[in-house]
Amino acid sequence: MSLVDESARFTYSGHKPVPSPCGRYIAYLNGSKLVIRKSDLLTLDRLIKIKTKNSNGFLRISQITWEPLYNGQSNKVAVLVDNENTVKIYDMNDEKVDISIVEDDVFGIENFQWLPKGEESIETAYDGSKQIVVFTK
């Protein structure tokens, strides 16, 4: 099977596209939208308008990171909106999930990191990574 270059089928701004650890998805920015494509045929899976506090809608995204593998899948993706000191979390299995972690404007956010699932199995209603660490500037 030969590889076919399909990169001309989409454009992105800012960050390079980020593949999920499970290999099912590719996330990238197109203006103020987070675009999620399936990696096999590059078909559109989700188009997420990143909500901002700014009236001008300008976003400076400095990080896009998928959660670590959990049961062979990565379903959550987070983005750091640098100019708003906010980490936004989205879940591929639930379009209603739009979580914001906001840091005080005095410090700002340097970056963030997903914590992998621990050894201890605790039953919860939430699958995948349950913790994220946010580092201030």
Please outline the major beta sheet. 4 strands, antiparallel
Can you count the beta strands?
A: 10
**Integer average pLDDT:** 83
The largest sheet has its strands arranged as 1-2-3-4
How many angstroms separate the termini? 47 Å
Assign an overall shape: globular
Portion in strands? 35-45%
Which radius of gyration do the C-alpha atoms yield?
16 Å
Oligomer: single chain
- N-to-C SSE string, H for helix and E for strand: EEEEEEEEEE
Give the class from helix and strand content and strand pairing.
mainly beta
Helical proportion, percent range: under 10%
Outline the structure in words.
Helix content is 0%, strand content 44%. Strand 7 and strand 8 form a beta hairpin. The model has no long low-confidence stretch (mean pLDDT 83).
Spell out the key features of this protein.
10 strands; 137 residues; mainly beta
Strand and helix layout:
Layout: E1 18-19, E2 25-30, E3 33-38, E4 44-49, E5 61-66, E6 76-81, E7 86-91, E8 94-102, E9 109-115, E10 131-136
Antiparallel strand pairs: 1-2, 2-3, 3-4, 5-6, 6-7, 7-8, 9-10
Q: Gist?
A:
With 137 residues, this protein is mainly beta.
